[in-house]
Amino acid sequence: MIDQDIKKLGFGLMRLPKKKDNSIDIEETSKMVDLFLSRGFKYFDTAYVYPGSEEAIRKALVERHPRNSFYLTSKLHAGAAKSEEEAKNEIYVSLERTGAGYLDYYLLHALMDDNYQQYEDYHLWDYVKELKEKGLIRHYGFSFHGTPKLLDEILSKHPDVEFVQLQLNYADWEDVNVQSRLNYEIARKHHKPIIVMEPVKGGILANPPKEVQELFRAEEPDRSIPSWAIRWIASKPGVMVVLSGMSNYQQMEDNSSYMEHFEGMSEKEEKIVEKATTLLFKDAIPCTACHYCTEGCPMNIPIPEIFSCYNMVKMGVDPEDAKFYYERRIKGKGKASDCLHCGQCEGMCPQHIEIISKLEEISALFD
């Protein structure tokens, strides 16, 4: 049975405060840990592949507070291992680094369509059950970055999974690549508690375009901008914990203040976030990802996925960061500059998007 005493804010330990020499600031982290616990929060999230994080939380948390006063999570990343044996040894490395004795929650890390089979080949689903039987972990689940179809397949094949971690936020809710809403609905269909990652989309929703910030401040001048994103997703039914990768004491002070006695977002506030989403995408290409345009493309260009990367830039994402996702989307397929200007896509588009000119614009940006 999943723990019932978890408040909805979790401390994500991937982006801990750093000193000038780029080492993790243990003193600052310890102050953040103390405030987090003092306000009744318990859930700490690290991973085998987060550099220095597991060692840091040993010093800042495990060695300073009773073991039964917190829940510690880590993750097994098959892609970081060269063999099944090496993958299965990650739990022991994590336990040594954290000094925790056991992990309350353990995840198979970052499953997606192009790496899922490795977790099957390494027999890791049976392995996490063995770890639970041995008392090394209390609950097991997985974090996910794939398609709704794959998520449904995994949860159908492994119904014993106790929870799932998903990338959910109001910017990605209808995104054709992330498909937040659809993945959320699949998890709900399978009755799995949901842990939320990237609620502010890597910081983008903490500093959205000016019009969005003005909208939020007009309603609540004293409320922080990121609070809107975190409270919005925390209000969704089935959400167990919303992780925030806090990097300094001020972020901890802010997030823990409005989540300490959180009871949900009002209907009026929901409508404001809905309006903010419209503003966020006002300059975006109005692609619905129906894929009618791709069915006859002679160059196999993934047009909707490419448009999604372009829309990231319009939303405020750094073009170099968006280019990273663009290059992932076109892997093994055509890029924007491969367009032959045949026009078949435009003839099929229900939204009447000028696809050819948009691909030229995207090519100039990414290719």
Structure description:
The radius of gyration is 21 Å and the shape is globular. The termini are far apart. The longest helix is centred in the first third of the chain and has 15 residues, at 84-98. It folds into two domains: 9-275, TIM Barrel (Alpha-Beta Barrel), CATH 3.20.20; 303-366, no CATH class. The chain has an eight-stranded parallel barrel with strand order 1-2-3-4-5-6-7-8, surrounded by five helices. The model has no long low-confidence stretch (mean pLDDT 95). 44% of the residues lie in helices and 12% in strands. Strand 3 (71-76), helix 3 and strand 4 form a beta-alpha-beta unit. By secondary structure, the protein is α/β, with parallel strands linked by helices.
Essential attributes:
single chain; 367 residues; alpha/beta; TIM Barrel; 44% helix
Helix content: 40-55%
Q: What CATH architecture of the largest domain would you give?
A: Alpha-Beta Barrel
Whole-number average pLDDT?
95
Low-confidence stretches: none
Q: Could you give the distance between the termini?
A: 50 Å
CATH superfamily heading of the largest domain:
NADP-dependent oxidoreductase domain
Order of helices and strands: EHEHEHEHHEHEHEHHEHHHHHH
Count of helical segments?
Answer: 15
Shape annotation: globular
**CATH topology assignment of the largest domain:** TIM Barrel
Strand-residue fraction? 5-15%
- The neighbouring-strand order within the major sheet is 1-2-3-4-5-6-7-8
